[in-house]
Every structure is written in C-alpha cells, then in structure tokens.
Design brief:
Elements (H helix, E strand, L loop, with lengths): L11 E4 L2 H4 L17 H10 L4 E4 L10 H10 L4 E3 L13 E6 L10 E6 L1
Parallel strand pairs: 1-2, 2-3
Antiparallel strand pairs: 4-5
Amino acid sequence: MEALHIPDGVERVLFRTQNTDRRLMWKSQFDSSYIGFTKEGAEWLRDHTNIKLIGIDYLSVAAFDHLIPAHVVLLQNKDIILVEGLNLDDVAVGLYELHCLPLKLLKSDGSPVRCILQS
C-alpha cells in the first residue's frame, strides 16, 4: 500500500486492479481469486491516509481469504464509505470528480449506487 504514494489530502480512491484486466465483473461465475484488501492493507489505509471512500473493481473490497477482518477494519471507521463492483474498464490513472448516486432505501445500511466520473 505504501508504494502507491497516495498524496496527502486525497479522500477518495478507486482501485483499478487486475480484476478489470481479467474481466472478472463480466464472468458468469464468481471467482474467489480476485484482488482485494487484506486486513493489513485495510489497516494501513485506515492508519496512514485520510481516505473517506474506497472503490474497487469487483464484488468486495476485501480479498476472499480476508472478507470479515478487512471489512471490520474499514467499517469500524464510520467515515469510510465502500463502493464495490465498479466498472473501471476505460478509466485511466488520474484525478477525477466522483459522483455516487444511491437509491434511498429505508432501514438499510447500504444501497446500490450509480457512480459517475468526470475528468
């Protein structure tokens, strides 16, 4: 995580990983070998950045073998929003403006969203 050199002040990061290159979101079968955060990676993000939103290009921000521990680390901080299942096929590395438009659901702690990137 440290090698990413996330600049100070950055509060929202979308992770375009090998999940996109492997086109995992377009496969009909779930693939447990997807790229996601380990507990240690989640702890590093929480402890060394000011990130308030983490987006990733598969069904979970947490690696399959770290599902519960990584989610617990990230969701204990009520300031961090997780956005999963992003289509980042044509998104190059860079700075963007991100708009996430959630459905308003009663008595829910999550919602499907439509995310829009503007360069």
